[in-house]
Amino acid sequence: MVTYGQSLSGKVVDSVRNEPIPGAVVYIPELKLGATTDINGKFAMSPVPKGTYDVEIKVLGYATVLRQVTVKDSATCNCSMCSSSCSANEVVITALGNFTSTERSPMPVTLVPHDILLQNSYSTIIDAISTQPGVNMTTEGVGTTKPQINGLGFDRVLVLTDGLRQEDFQWGDDHGILIDPYSIYDAEIIRGPASLQYGASAEAGVINFKTQPFAENGTTQGSVLTEYQTNNGYIATSEDVGGNHNGFVWDLRASNEEAHDYWDPKDGYVWGTAWMQDNARLTLGFIKSWGYSRISVSLLERRIQVPDGNRDSTGRFMFDVPQNGQLYPGTSDFLAYNPTIASDKILGEIQTWWQNSFNLGKGKLGVDIGFTQSIHHDIDTGTVGQGNFEVKDIPYSISYQLITNGYKLTTGINGTYEFENNYAEPPAPYIGDFEIPDYTDFQAGGYAILSYQPIANNHWLISGGLRYDFNNFIGQPMYLLNAGTPEQKDMSDSTTGAVNQFRAFNKTYSGASGSIGASYQLPENNYLKLNVSKSFRAPSIDELTSNGVNIGVNAFQQGNLNLNAEEGYQVDFAYGNNGKDISFEADGFYNVINNFIFPVRVSSKLGGDSMLQGVPFYQYIANKAILTGFSGYFNIHPSDTRWLEIDNSFTYVYSYFPNQTDSTQHIPWTPAPRLTTEIKLKLQKTNSHWLLANSYIEFGMAKYWAQNNIYSALYSEIPSLAYTLFNAGVGTNFVDTKTGRVICSLYINCTNLLNIGYADHLNLAQYFLSYNGSPVTVTQQSQGIYNMGRNVGFKLLFPIGGHKVNETEMKGME
Q1: Second label for 438, Cα 20 to 30 Å away, from 223, 307, 313, 789?
Q2: Calpha distance 336→611 (Å, rounded)
Q3: pLDDT per residue over 726-765, tens digit each?
Q4: 383 vs 272: CA distance, rounded Å
Q5: pTM of the prediction?
Q6: Are 709 and 654 in contact (CB under 8 A)?
Q7: Taking the alpha carbons of 600, 605, 611, 613 in that order, is the dihedral positive or negative?
Q8: How does pLDDT run across 371-400, given as a tens digit for each residue?
């Protein structure tokens, strides 16, 4: 029964026994607002703005329920829940702009719930999601990671935080995503073109990271987390506190991470892989009858070494420049929490977001605006940056959503105004490294998305829309006198002898994107999905204008101002089942991209690969590309054996350029096929003064096949070998039996259990090799840098304000 009002209340009961369910979380994702049912199964939350909302009800041991509720005066949402042994019952997705479930979304969607992020050890938030179906990551050391979806990465994957664009050098492969992993509560991954809502950068898909939900009304709560990992001595702490007082919401988080060099069985300690990061994030807001308004401010600084593989003839790592008369790093250097000795980067990210939603007629008006400043310093040797620049963005979005009679209409405009400037030439003897020019980039796009789910026959959901994007680059010229010497200076074009580093340009790109898809709910918990889409992406600034040594990737990169925009056409099809004992989904896709842009190693006039300024020379070109593949999962969670859960996933991508030779046939950096399996044993309660609740033991395996489908011309890419990793973990909550409150949670994980030496195909550090400072072309994996060896992580979480374990958890897995 649903009544209307500016509060939401109700009761949650067991569907079979009709008994109340205490501890169930009733959550409105759009508002980041929730409430927990009491011992009688009742809940209440206020204030709740007027409007229609999707409400999620979830609790351990029951299948998650999704309800749509309209709030006008005093709304009631009563719910009965069915028992389920599956721990992965998250269903609501928000990143598509109109709330729906994973089963009903026409596009393949993966949810990474909070428990998964909390129970595992990782260094970056991209690392945390990288084994999800269809998802991979490129790495240049433990702290530098970028996501891939369906074989595409970098500027083709859009990363969001709470639905807002993450603008931190998305186009670079040596920067990493600048997000504090401890600020992230859960994540949504859209696999496939999602440009309709967000624009051209979502050509491959969207990853929407979501921060901590707000506290319940009238409460203040938080947590203290500490973590240690054995391999690279990773030490992290994160403190969070937030409250909700009659609709005034706030949350404050501060985190610190640091690590020394990591170790692997082939290289030993890998010189140049230490890093550290600090982040502070504050959110303030109001939730009122008219809607909500909140502002978030985040300050992040990451300092990270960049390994270059410099060794002597015996393979021993060397300093790039002697340190205190020493040629080689010693044990104290490898174990130092100091990422300033080797080549390193200083990366800063300042973000301010103002998000608003207003009730307007029968719909909601969203108005968002932000400001981000991304700061970049490349330090090759010494203490002075040689590649120094900053990128500032003003992202904006105006949207309107209307829900009526089974229809959901979302329409609006969004984009960003970006401007970049290089810092002044550093003092001698340092030589400025100017990789891209000063430029401005204005992006704007308008869109309309309409979905329909018949009220009389809710088996169907049909969704489609159109978008048009406009993108204008204006680049400033640069002339260098005495280029490449300590006397290098930035001069005017009239200076005699000055070299043209960048020429002025004005490029405009525009194009349409669109999507139409449907999902259908079949009998016996089966469902089908089909989606057809067209994508559009303008070239990124580095693809257009790069003209210098990229210290982070150890290569000279040259852009191409003659590049055209990419246009892709993709078909996605999925079949799945969400039963009480098993659940599975199989997703297939076929993607054709015209004018696909990628860098290739340029051949020398004398034959072989060319070198420029002592490093390999790459230039951006374009070709027609085709990607096809399959991903899916198969999970076993027997209803009669609730202590057991077996989760499996598979990812396979095949790519090629039509009508090319064997050595240039495949798209670079296509991930190797992967199979993952995880067995989780959920333990019964342990009686003592401190009850052990939600305890588990898990064992995992990740099998990676060899990747021989590569762009092998001039050793642009080398084949990778097959390998298998084994993992294990345990976890529990310590609960005070007198109060029912969680004292702390403990999680222990071991990755690469057998300590094998391996190099992942997307580990770009395997291409870093120098002898006595002179770069060498890597022709086989054994020459470069391997991935991390065995690592054991310990994580402790102490709640603040207390969390009562619900009755189901207290009973344990009987």
Answers
A1: 307
A2: 34
A3: 999 999 999 887 777 889 999 999 999 999 999 999 999 9
A4: 15
A5: 0.91
A6: yes
A7: negative
A8: 999 998 888 766 778 888 999 999 999 999
